[in-house]
Specification:
Blueprint: H1 7-15, H2 19-22, E1 41-45, H3 50-55, H4 62-71, H5 75-81, E2 82-86, H6 106-123, E3 127-131, H7 133-140, H8 145-148, E4 153-155, E5 158-163, H9 176-198
Parallel strand pairs: 1-2, 1-3, 3-5
Antiparallel strand pairs: 4-5
Amino acid sequence: MSRARSIRALQRENARCRRCLEAGYPIVPPPVFAGRAGQRAYLFGLAPGRVEAERGLPWQGRAGRTLRGWLRLDEDEFFAQFYCASLTRCFPGPSPSGRGDRRATRAEELLCAPWRDRELELLRPRLVVTVGQAAATRVLGVSRLTEAVGKSYLVDEAIVVPLPHPSGASGWLNDSTNRARLGKALTHVRRELGRLELA
């Protein structure tokens, strides 16, 4: 695990990371993340997609536009508010089936985990927003989104609010009850962002 003493130093190390590539995984580096020291809101997703890998910035595709719409933030406001990171930092490549992106393996997630752990130690965020099932499971240990979305949790000193993934590939939001859960979750996120602005 990195012992970097600042977010900038950690980011320089992370930008050079080739752990998964050297372990033989068909990723497309370099790592993708965005943020700065002092940010108190941390957004944690699954992995960058092809568009994010090409642009070197998280949440650049359709899912990112949907997420910002949910949060009622334009792109500048979004990146001003959130330090953006993910379970795995590099684009995992296309799915072998030819549809969508490959899901990174548990081994790849473990190779990436020290970056998240050190970020959280250095940032000490007051708000953590997880996006999608995998991120919610990693942070909260929940097994189903329906159990978690619409609630907020206290983990260490941070409020954690899980959101579903904004991908059009997910059918989770086709259920009206789940849409209501999302509405509650977004109310929690906006409330906590408001508190951070007043702090």
